[in-house]
Structures
1.
Amino acid sequence: MTEHDSWDAAARARVSDRWSAHSAQWNTAMTDALLSAAAFSPDSVVLDLAAGSGDPALTIAERVIRGRVIALDSSLAGLLLAGTHARRLGLGAKVTFVQADAEAIPLAAKCVDRVTCRCGIMFFSDTALVMSEVLRVLKPGGRAGFLVWGSFEQPFFDATVGVVLRLVNGAQMPAQALEMFRFALPRSLERALRTAGFRNVREEPLTVPRIWAGSAEELWEYQQEISTLCHPLFDSIPTGSRLKVDAEVAASLSRFRNGNVLTVPVNVIVVTGQRP
């Protein structure tokens, strides 16, 4: 499976009708943290990088009353799904979908008020080039906001992939999956923005809740579907160990049950910067 195939598969899983009710609030707090930091106005033109299947681009579109959103991603399959979802929500006229790489954004200079990127910047191969492109398309005084994962050593990962790593002899995180934590080191993404020329750069570590309206077993199944970069790890689980791993993950996730939902804390980092 190529990297594009992986992103396509993840996009399809995220918008699957099978999971829509369970996962409705799964990323809400993360999105809210990013959009609050980006501080756009109802008139803003917002570019959302690594838009995937439309989250958080469509949430932004709901909030920019008189503005518009440009959702950019390298995956055509994800954008097609996002377009379908946008039309269902009546947002089609407010969102433009662009298939392109963030290293070469096909937009004019100084044309957007805000740039957002949730859990995407760590996967771009040339961070400096992406930052240069973001600065180019931002209007003077415009702001960029990025949300990335904190360290791997946190409750959600410990209760899921961490269980696999502990119970399966020789199991290792795939190199591509480890890229998720590329900016977990404090100030590392802040330095990237400062080096690129952003001003008023601010980095803030946060712990926010992910809310799952279903069982621990269903959350584990969902996580395995959408975490396509971890498929080599999941595939390494011997058939004879599968039931033990699944039971241990379910038990670990069940600790987060709060009434009728699972409320799982996750550690993220939000970094913002302004174009001079």
2.
Amino acid sequence: MVERVVVITGASDGIGEALAVQLAERGASLVLVARRETELRRVAERCGERAVPMVADVTRREEVRRVVDQAIARFGGIDVWVNGVGRGITKLPTLLTDEDIDDMMSVNVKSALYGMQEVLPHFTARNTGHVINISSVLGRVPFNVSRTAYNGAKHYLNALTAGFRSEVQQAHPGIQFTLVSPGGVKTRFGVHALHGGPDSRLQAEFERVEDVATVIAGTIESRRPDVYTKPGVHQRVVGYYSSLGSDP
């Protein structure tokens, strides 16, 4: 991990913060991105002198472009880009509004799309690079009805990740696009969800944020294309679709 430059969006809390701390301990140089300056600087201080906070709203393409340019200017290049920004929602599908859908798409899809598109020219020029998109098991199976709009946004992110991988690797096999799918994680995800929700930190069965971060850090080393953070989840996903029906 030493000498690698890693950009993490959504780094002011939760998975992003835990990942930043672990990568700093392994010697990586970090560009930490989030909207909340006070919280972001606190995380940067935890990570040490090789961590640079950059306040930005990654739902705005021009701000993502600025982060790319400033990261390259500061460290001479980018090795890994982690799209960690995300937001949930608590609302039944029959009650969803245009504004609800727009929010889910902007935060969970467009932020990652901008990251991939804006860092890609730098990666293609070097013929190497790694994008990691943080999705969710709910992007595979719609277990939680009140999260339906979030589920749909993460399904979209999954498709984008696979599409970028297939397109880009035709000419640049050294560039990887990895999809990471955690289950429930003990973060502020629930309380920060659009329209509120239960505190995910109080759910006994949810994953520890440090454990999820460890899996993501390992993915930087392995460059695997598709990763679940909790054992047994892949089989659960396969079982869900197997139970829906069969070919005619």
3.
Amino acid sequence: MKILPTLNVQNGVVVPMVGNAVVPGDVLALVGYLRDKGCHRLALVDVDAARGHGHNRELLARAMHKFHVGRSKVCIQVGGGIRSSDQAQFFMDHGAAWLSVGTILHRSPAMVEQLLARFHEQLTASVDARGGEVLASGWSGPIGQKPADAGRRIGQFGFKRLLFMDIPMASSAGPACAAAPDFVTARALASSSRLPLFMGGSIQSPEHLTQAREVAGLQGVAVDALLLRDNPAFSASIILPGC
């Protein structure tokens, strides 16, 4: 099971993936922490660019350079607001190995084709879903598409891998982040797309990772880097040995 420690960057700082009650983090300091712990995989998400309100592009470039220094084998995925070949090339030039795209899957199929023609090996399709419903950009609401349909469409495009961001639903039993991972949707996406699947958002405990290992087609999980920073036992026993 591959582990992708994930930094969601908004207004220049690392923010929680799905509303965890933790202190925001310094981007470069957190990248250095993961690097010093031996991680060789990293995911960076530009939240501002994804929502269409500015970007953190230069900061992400500095973070990638910091993670690469002195090492030849690292894998960095960058996502959030990549909607043109020039934006994709910028991140490739600064050390990205994978590029995650989501919004344009629904809004601009023509641009998807252009990106696939140029960055086929690097492209990851990203699907956000809550309660079995695929969500629009910024989680503003469902787009009326079921996960199995989204998976089939992504498989037909010819992507190399699929990232499922499981956005937990709030409940009377506690905050949204306490919800169980939606492995039903994960299985539907893996089966319909026939692509290697990664899953993030709701993977927040050792138990969740144990359950994830039993899901056919699920090859890796994206885990909030802030959780790793603030829970040393969690990071030491689950994440860092597998990064």
4.
Amino acid sequence: MSAGDLQPLDESWQRALAIAAHPDDFEYGMASAVAKWTAAGKSVAYLLATRGEAGLALPPHVAGPLREEEERRSAAVVGVSDVEFLDHRDGVVEYGLELRRDLSAAVRRHRPEIVLTINHHDTWGGPSFNMADHRNVGLAALDAVRDAANPWIFPPSTTQAAEAWDGVRMVCIAGSPRATHAVDVSGFLEVGIASLREHAAYLDHVGTEADSWLRGMAEETGARIGTEHAVSFEVVQR
């Protein structure tokens, strides 16, 4: 898409559920928007499919608790206190009924108006292939929204959810190469950067410098909508 092609994201909602595969997935851009929304009084909950235990040069039993704690601190920076971890295995998350069941149960528990998730496409828009965990969790999140709305799919006896939830208006996909909408995060970029910096062990492991990467992306997206800083989403309407 070219400059000026992104539409403003509809922000007339109060409750969101953000779903991702690993600790740090939310912090590569989305967290700045989350900071804006929580500052405005909106409720955002985080759901992680894994604990990121295969993401460091440490044994999983050491890395998992470390990365979980980094995510909780990171979430607190942007005003999120509700952080839940599932027990799918990092690096080998499988798309299928078990994942869809877990995610739809979360949608029914939280009863969000929008669901936020990560890029489920094959690439990020270039030659770099998107890893399976991202693709599988992002696609399952889309399916789980529909599953959660149907009382005959994963009924309460299997999900422990009281009833179906048909209140999700849209799914917003961060990091998508097919972005359609954007959120002006001018004034909130620094909070988003601080949120990513809480993943100190992971950033040290991958050699990523939080400030320059996030600032460059936010400036590039901001230029597309005529503002200082922005983050983009692909929006799927229900």
